[in-house]
Write a structure and sequence with these properties.
The protein is mostly beta strands. The protein contains one helix and 22 strands. The protein starts with a helix and ends with a strand.
Length: 338
């Protein structure tokens, strides 16, 4: 039987594939280890220590990382004991944390709060990330911090027209803690004001009058290791109102009038009084309220004077909130005899 050239070539090709090689079984890709999470940061807030760290964006090989979660580990030392510098670390599992990825696909900040804290202890933490198949990456560098129960603030609060003012005395903090001031937070937990150490007064403005606000205040400090710490809260409900008195009238003049004594005063240019309180006495120490004038006038006639008597007059400005100014300069006059 004769075999055509085409069949000979096909047979030779098949023999070549058999002898030289073939498609073998699939080989599992090499495992690529995840990079370390950023060094966690620690912050004490009331009874808890809050750890924060960012999602690793790359593997050790430089490729994109796929993170499914984290393992947080912890060591603790009671008062009087310190971490052993030469001993291998012996961590306990503290928590497993789900990963957080923001909508822009940029590495997001993850956090975990440790509420199992004891006053006077020191804690060391580290974080390890896991990929989608459950393989762990390298653990983060450890972070060490102290924990102490800080006192809650004691603050004097005075409502104002568009906010409030505060005044406090510097607290006594545990040894090694550095006082940094007072933090004031609004209802959305946003920082309204930081009153730094060395300043004991502050003012929060731009609030709506007659509206109640729930305000939280915390001492701010640094731990001996330099991590931020805040005390338990001091909470107060504040309704801004005008408690600031207006400026007093600049001068007061008294004249004899056919009807009695005519009084004329000059309010400060920037003040708009709701009323003016008139005071009278037969000496400077015996002034009593005589009358209240309307807001739209700067003149008052006292028709109740007696002839041949010396009178002292003063006046005070009053605003719409009922706040009264200090006394104006006094004016003295003696009425005519009959």
């Amino acid at each position: 039987m004769r075999i055509g050239k085409g069949r000979i070539l096909l047979l030779a090709l098949c023999l070549t594939l058999v002898v030289c090689g073939r498609i073998g079984d699939p080989i599992a890709p090499e495992y690529v280890e995840l990079s370390k999470p950023d060094i966690p940061s620690a912050r004490a807030l009331g009874p808890a220590i809050i750890l924060t760290w960012k999602t690793p964006g790359r593997t050790l090989a430089g490729g994109p990382a796929s993170i499914s979660g984290y393992l947080v580990e912890r060591q603790g030392w009671p008062p009087g004991e310190n971490p052993c510098a030469d001993c291998p670390p012996e961590y306990d599992e503290a928590a497993k944390v789900d990963v957080i990825i923001d909508k822009t696909r940029i590495s997001a900040t993850n956090s975990w709060s440790d509420f199992q804290t004891i006053d006077g202890w020191r804690y060391r933490y580290r974080v390890t990330s896991f990929d989608g198949r459950g393989h762990p990456g390298l653990p983060s560098e450890p972070v060490l911090t102290s924990f102490r129960d800080l006192p809650a603030p004691k603050v004097d609060v005075v409502p104002m027209r568009d906010g409030f003012t505060i005044n406090y005395t510097k607290p006594t903090l545990p040894g090694g803690y550095e006082f940094r001031g007072l933090n004031i937070y609004g209802e959305d937990k946003g920082l309204l004001l930081n009153v730094p150490a060395g300043i004991s007064e502050g003012r929060v403005g731009s609030l709506k009058g007659s509206t109640s606000y729930d305000i939280t205040m915390r001492w701010s400090a640094l731990t001996p290791e330099g991590w931020p710490a805040e005390s338990p809260p001091f909470k107060v409900s504040i309704t801004p109102k005008d408690v600031e008195p207006p400026k007093p009238p600049l001068e007061l003049a008294a004249f004899q009038d056919e009807e009695g004594v005519r009084l004329m005063w000059a309010p400060p240019p920037e003040e708009q009084y709701a009323a003016v309180v008139i005071l009278r006495g037969e000496n400077a120490e015996s002034l009593k309220v005589l009358a209240r004038s309307a807001a739209n006038t700067t003149i008052y006639i006292d028709k109740t004077v007696a002839p041949g008597v010396t009178y002292f007059y003063g006046c005070m400005g009053e605003d719409e909130a009922g706040n009264v100014s200090k006394l104006s300069p006094l004016s003295k006059i003696r009425t005519k005899e009959k």
